[in-house]
């Protein structure tokens, strides 16, 4: 019997990490502690989200610009179409180019009233993520990542319509998609087959969400259209008041998920870190990643 890929050394594993911009001084310290812990693992990039409605415009920019300046790791800035004119968004994109940032995660974003409300583009704004991707490409030759939804986006008419929309984002210039998180690998693997059959051939990097807080993540998953299987709920049963065990279980569950994906030939992983390093660091360790001493620490 051949050894499973996850049990052997896979030198070609690549990871990326997602953070959100900090709101307070204490959160900022935690964020940079996490960045400095994870950077030596040599991720392909670290991305920083853009708050709903553009609410974190400045903080996203500051965090990404600091990553770029200190050359800790290649940064990627998330950007949405919400609440700004094309001119304003183009100004943000140009600012990133000038700061040496070359990778943008381009999204439509959610309506200011949250998921479930109808998205109304800004009157002078980009009307959707395809238009945003094309607009960014006009400003500079950025690397552009976009979203992908293995269980389809809650607003899409069907999975096929969703796949057509992803293809349009690729045609507009996207070269990588990062998926919404999912917990059943079968869902992702079937989705990947459908994308390949539909001629979408860019990397579709699985977004991995270690469940730091089961209840909170399950609530968010429901709104985002990501299913939470019963077996997963069972694993966290009775742990609501036991954060320590919950974290160990969360790391174990996510490790099982990524190792199974490795066995299915997946080599790229994007981690939703929630600005915390420890779980993600442990999972990356199991993936065979080790700190590279030459990686510089941020000041
Ligand atoms: P799109 O890919 O543009 O659209 C999603 C689906 O809706 C399409 O596949 C399509 O089926 C349907 N659809 C949309 N427009 C049309 C149309 N005109 N015609 C037909 N069908 C259409 N949100 C933030 O606010 N900030 C972030 O930093 C952020 N980062 C994210 C990172 C990742 C990896 C992911 C997966 C999501 C992120 N989001 C973020 C959430 C995202 O903004 C929401 O899911 C939003 O509702 C959709 O934006 P999108 O770019 O994913 O949608």
Automatic annotation (TrEMBL):
- Say which domain of life the source belongs to: Bacteria
Pfam families named among the record's database cross-references = MTHFR
* Parts forming coiled coils: none
Annotated Gene Ontology cellular component terms = cytosol
Question: Which biological processes are named by the entry's GO terms?
Answer: methionine biosynthetic process; tetrahydrofolate interconversion
Q: Name one GO molecular function term.
A: FAD binding
* EC category: oxidoreductase
Q: In which pathway does it act?
A: Amino-acid biosynthesis; L-methionine biosynthesis via de novo pathway; One-carbon metabolism; tetrahydrofolate interconversion
Q: CDD domains annotated for this entry?
A: MTHFR (cd00537)
Cofactor dependence: FAD
Key words, A-Z: Amino-acid biosynthesis, FAD, Flavoprotein, Methionine biosynthesis, NAD, Oxidoreductase
- What is catalyzed by this enzyme? (6S)-5-methyl-5,6,7,8-tetrahydrofolate + NAD(+) = (6R)-5,10-methylene-5,6,7,8-tetrahydrofolate + NADH + H(+)
Enzyme Commission number, as recorded: 1.5.1.54
Q: Which SUPFAM superfamilies match?
A: FAD-linked oxidoreductase
NCBIfam families documented for this protein: fadh2
UniProt record similarity statement:
Belongs to the methylenetetrahydrofolate reductase family.
Q: What is the official name of this protein in its record?
A: Methylenetetrahydrofolate reductase
Q: Which species is the source of this protein?
A: Methylocella silvestris (strain DSM 15510 / CIP 108128 / LMG 27833 / NCIMB 13906 / BL2)
